[in-house]
Amino acid sequence: MPRPAEGSDVSEVPAKKKLSFLNKYLTVWIFLAIFIGVGSGAAIPGIADGLNKLSVGTTSIPIAIGLILMMWPPLAKVKYEELKEIPKQPEAKRMFGTSLVLNYVVGPFLMFALAWIFLPDNVYFRIGLILVGVARCIAMVIVWNDLAEGDSEYAAILVALNSVFQIALYSFYVYFFVAVASDWVSPGSGTEIDIGVWEVAQSVLIYLGIPFVMGIATRYLLLSRRGPGWYNDRLMPVLGKVSLLALLFTIVVMFAFKGEYILNQPFDVVRIAIPLVFYFVIMFFLSFGLSIKLKFDYPHATAQSFTAASNNFELAIAVAIGVFGIGSLIAFATVIGPLIEVPVLISLVNVALWIKKRYYDTEGRLLSSRAVADGVAK
Asked: Highest mean pLDDT: which of 41-55, 86-100, 182-196?
């Protein structure tokens, strides 16, 4: 895949300048949303009952609208048109084969293992982590990849692939890990929570399918009519704010439901956060180490690693709410995902840039082992 041309913004703009004000302080906004939610839930005991009245079954109508608005902008940013470029890319089979293994074999099984290691006594938190682990990244990875100077075209294609694959595979993966694989680890545990493929598929079709169609329609109708400049520089920033506000709204409401619970059991947030940190860090270094071993250049190795290490927490939250209800501990566990992912992945951007300086030349080509050793000696 072609690298950004010399003089382009990807190669010259300092990483710190690429984050918008809202994205730069995303962790702050999430913490603020949590604080508002917990405070509201504790101060207004009847808030949960009031929100429940706006629900149909386990589906909260306000949250459903918020989740769709949260998913639509990232899916409108995906470059679906680049999927046809896959066979034309150099080393396409090795690169995409590696990405598929990392995203659909290693990642889900790693999160499953971490969930059982750290949360063997809490089936609800375990399932919440599994929902996060199975949901492969389709949105924020573009931000991390750009900050770390990865290949934007390759990242865009991986995001497009993940969008399509998740609609087809997510419900089957969730059922397998929750109902089948859990039973292998602890006989009988697979029946602790009643869940079916179609039940998850319905939520996927609603919360990923609807915004997926909206995203494609938005891209193909407006990109061709208004041009890439207006679409990327004017429309996408506005839709990005809509997505962030919808995420923060969802977090506020979910923590309002659990305000009293969190005040009584604050350590539960820490218990959920620990395996998430391990997951993001392990996936990043595993993917980067494998990319170096396979001799991928830096831009592709970076895109590969951040795609593998990130997750589609929007989908995990949506499915948890749609299947188990907004007040469930499973939904509560999924919403911890963005709280941990954002600061950890921002930190890993700096790690990636250090790896670039240590193991790659100025063109992004992998240095020989001798050159690396000489660099250390100096």
From this structure: 182-196
- Which pTM value belongs to this model? 0.82
Nearest to 317 by CA among 115, 66, 52, 54: 66
Q: How many C-beta atoms lie closer than 10 Å to residue 301's C-beta?
A: 31
How far apart are the C-alpha atoms of 166 and 334, rounded to whole Å?
17
Distance CA 319, CA 331 (A): 8
The C-alpha atoms of residue 144 and residue 309 are separated, in whole angstroms, by: 10
Domain count, the chain: 1
Domain span at residue 115 reads 26-349
Q: Each residue of 178-211: pLDDT tens digit?
A: 989 998 998 888 777 878 888 888 888 888 888 8
Please check whether residue 9 lies inside any domain of the structure: no
- Burial (Cβ within 10 Å: 0-12, 13-18, ≥19) of residue 251: buried
Contact 195, 323 (CB under 8 A): yes
Residue 17 counted as domain residue: no
